[in-house]
Amino acid sequence: MDTVTLRRLHVLLFIEVGSRRVHSGGITTNPTGAWSTQAARNLLMRLDPSFRFVVHDGAGQCSGTFDTVFTAVRMTAITTPPRAPKANAFAERWVRTVRHELLGRTLVWNERQLRGLLIEYIDHYNSCRPDRSLNQRAPNDQNIVEIESGRTVQRHTTCGGLINEYRTAHARRAANTWRSDSDEFSTPSGCRAGSSGDGDSVVVGNRPWSSLGEVAQIVDSG
Questions:
Q1: SS3 185
Q2: Do the beta carbons of residue 131 and residue 197 sit within 8 Å?
Q3: 3-state class (DSSP) for residue 125
Q4: How many domains, in total, are found in the chain?
Q5: Burial 125-145 (b: 16+ CB within 10 A, else e)
Q6: What is the pLDDT of residues 1-32, one digit of tens each?
Q7: For position 76, what pLDDT does the model report?
Q8: Residue 76 phi/psi, 5° resolution?
Q9: Is the separation of the CB atoms in 156 and 178 below 8 Å?
Q10: Do 25 and 82 lie in a common domain?
Q11: Based on the domain organization, do 33 and 111 belong to the same domain?
Q12: Which domain holds residue 106?
């Protein structure tokens, strides 16, 4: 992501392909191999260790030590062919989504602002944004309950007012989901279709948002 002051920021992201759940790995102006390796360690501290593969491109940030972090927990590291974005389709699709819904609609001044926006957007994406590949559920949703006629629906904004979330009145947020005693419902404006796929996986991406860059992907083929 290029800021207004022409400073380039790089973002590391992880996506669980099966659930489409996104994790942030961090933001830096200097994405070295050591930085990516530490971000991988941080991820594994909060990630379910049942995943079997990590797929990434041949960028220098995804060094041998980066792979070692995952192979140490019995994941197989796979490097995608050069110039093959479809090999990392889930990460590429998520990058397009966040550009379309957030980064393409705001001016970013510094790393602190970008971090705040991405934290809010990832929380919105995981908890509230319907995904067509998940039958219109958000990644953290377990069930979808139809709203009864006559129920009051309230609109709430996130990401500096760029995105709307809708939920029934008197709902409360718990376990990363908008909930009430009898139902849960939320949807943002401008829903986008996600890629489809089978199995549980995680996608990792490390790239400048303003151009094609380095992306990695973790996959569990079952």
A1: coil
A2: no
A3: helix
A4: 2
A5: bbbbbbbebbeebbbbbeeee
A6: 899 999 999 999 888 888 899 999 999 999 99
A7: 87
A8: -95, 125
A9: no
A10: yes
A11: yes
A12: 10-129+194-220
Which residues, in sequence order, are CB contacts of 81 under 8 Å at separation 6+?
87
* C-alpha span between 152 and 168 (Å, rounded): 6
Q: How far apart are CA 204 and CA 176, in angstroms?
A: 21
pLDDT 10s digits, 131-187: 888 888 899 987 666 767 777 888 889 998 999 988 776 544 443 443 333 333 333
Whether 209 is in a domain gets the answer yes
Any domain includes 139: yes
For residues 63 and 102, membership in a common domain is answered with yes
pLDDT tops 90 at residue 101: yes
* Average pLDDT rounded to a whole number, residues 191-198: 33
Q: How far apart are CA 202 and CA 21, in angstroms?
A: 8
> Are residues 116 and 171 both part of a single domain?
no
- Does a structural domain hold residue 19? yes
**Residues 39-90: tens digit of each pLDDT:** 999 999 988 778 888 888 777 778 788 989 998 998 988 888 888 888 888 8
Closest CA to 214 of 5, 35, 53: 35
What is the DSSP code string of 9-78? -EEEEEE-TTT--EEEEEEESS--HHHHHHHHHHHHTTS-TT--EEEE-S-TTS-HHHHHHHHTTTPEEE
Rounded to an integer, what distance in angstroms lies between the CA atom of residue 164 and that of residue 172?
Answer: 16
- Name the token pair of 96: 């397009």
Nearest one of 68, 55, 65 to 34, comparing CA atoms: 65
More reliable by pLDDT, 198 or 219? 219
